[in-house]
């Protein structure tokens, strides 16, 4: 009986998603998984400016069993919060001086509920009044998405861009995208 059930289950295309969900769920409840996974990471000298771990929610899963494409821009934005604080340490939205003028996301592989994702961010370009961030999203150490976001440092009172201060520029400069990664991020 069990073999017949398994054969029927294997023929169902949704069964793979279900099996994946069951496998992933065991990782969520295993408190040692996170530490073991971090111990496996290899440091290749590509330290991101910021790395943010996000736990996917069931509500972010779509009908095909993976995370919805509309979720990734939200996750990338959440990972940028430390960058926002460089320009606005108080976090007061009434004085938030950045405007996003461009955002791009390349979807490379599916992302699933039950496994953490990590968003890594570097500074790709610093202009006079704007900067571009390069972002990568990993699940189980697999690159699943990459993107970029360009912001303008903006003076709302005068309705124009303003130069990035030397202090903030210096903090951004420390986290420049390594040249070798910059070349591969174009493709």
Automatic annotation (TrEMBL):
Pfam families: 4HBT_2 (PF13279). It comes from Aneurinibacillus aneurinilyticus ATCC 12856. InterPro entries: 4-hydroxybenzoyl-CoA_TE, HotDog_dom_sf. CDD domains: 4HBT. SUPFAM superfamilies: Thioesterase/thiol ester dehydrase-isomerase. GO terms for molecular function: fatty acyl-CoA hydrolase activity. Belongs to the 4-hydroxybenzoyl-CoA thioesterase family. PANTHER family: 4-HYDROXYBENZOYL-COA THIOESTERASE FAMILY MEMBER (PTHR31793), NOVEL THIOESTERASE SUPERFAMILY DOMAIN AND SAPOSIN A-TYPE DOMAIN CONTAINING PROTEIN (0610012H03RIK) (PTHR31793:SF27). Signal peptide: none annotated. Transmembrane segments: none annotated. Keywords: Hydrolase. This is Acyl-CoA thioester hydrolase, YbgC/YbaW family.
